[in-house]
Amino acid sequence: MPINVLVVDDSLVMRSMIIKTIKMCGLPINEIHQADNGANGLKILDDNWIDLVIVDINMPVMSGEEMIDHMKQNPEIKEIPVIIISTEGSSTRIERLKNKGAKFIRKPFTPESIRDTVNSLIALGDSNE
Amino acid sequence: MNKDITDILLEVTETTLKQLAFLFCSPEPERNKTSVDMSIGALIHFSGQFNGAIVLVLSMPILIELTGNMLGIEEDEVTVTHQYDALKETLNVICGNLLPFMAGEKEMFHISSPEVIINMDELKKAITHINGLSLISIARMHIETEQCDLFLFLDDNYLKEKE
């Protein structure tokens, strides 16, 4: 079943790169939404059905980690799979983020890393469903 | 200047530009000057176990190529907004990948939002002096015939840690 994806990153160029990569990966995509910080990402989650969130960490207004914390407190969206794509290099912080249930991809990323991570998170089902 | 840190800077920059934008840079150790003409800069600060800043100076033609490659669009479609954003994101990635090499993988740093430096006088100043920090390393590279230079500034805490 096609999925709806939310990409949250304060860099327009990075959002475009992530979206281009997702489209190239052959994943069944329905809609792709974008936000430039965690607060705007949460608004999109309020108004839309989202199957996967891809989020940066260091952003103005609300960081990716704060956004994930808000998501975890909301029963309606706390189960949505989250992939963090970030320059974060500290294993201490990465481990903390993974403990919140998120997968982590370091920038610069390869298309394969995104494809494999999405596949590991989303049960895409088959066309008979 | 610290040769070990320069080598790390060169390696991280080379990997970042290759993976982000399919650009291949080569060290240019024989060049001892950075031209700010027809160039643009970006500055990022970080704080943690030690504090510092990095300035990236790119020739304009390379920035346009970098941006086009990152976005997968033709160079004549690249806007100034795209260029500034690509420059900032590139420096952000370089900084994020450099710090674990310098401080170890467990250390946590706060990395500021990068800022673009367009004004030539400000850029000249930024590559020579940043308040409270010392210029530790300069990594000069070229991409095709254009320059791509990095300036690393650190506070005394880094040197104390290494002693």
Task: Outline the structure in words.
The complex is a heterodimer of chains A (129) and B (163). Chain A is built from five helices and five strands; from the N terminus they run E-H-E-H-E-H-E-H-E-H. In chain A, helix 3 links the parallel strand 3 and strand 4. The termini of chain A are close together. By secondary structure, chain B is of the alpha+beta class. In chain B, strands 1, 2, 3, 4, 5, 6 and 7 form a seven-stranded antiparallel sheet that branches.
What is this structure, in a nutshell?
The complex is a heterodimer of chains A (129) and B (163). Chain A is built from 5 helices and 5 strands.
Low-confidence stretches of chain A: 125-129
* Order of strands, widest sheet of chain A: 2-1-3-4-5
Number of helices of chain A: 5
The percent of residues in helical segments of chain A reads 40-55%
Q: Could you give the count of β-strands of chain B?
A: 7
Q: How big is the Rg of chain B?
A: 15 Å
Oligomeric status: heterodimer
Summarize the biggest pleated sheet of chain A: 5 strands, parallel
N-end to C-end Cα span of chain A: 8 Å
Number of helices of chain B: 5
Largest binding interface between chains: A-B, 23 and 28 residues
Strand content of chain A: 15-25%
Averaged pLDDT of chain B: 93
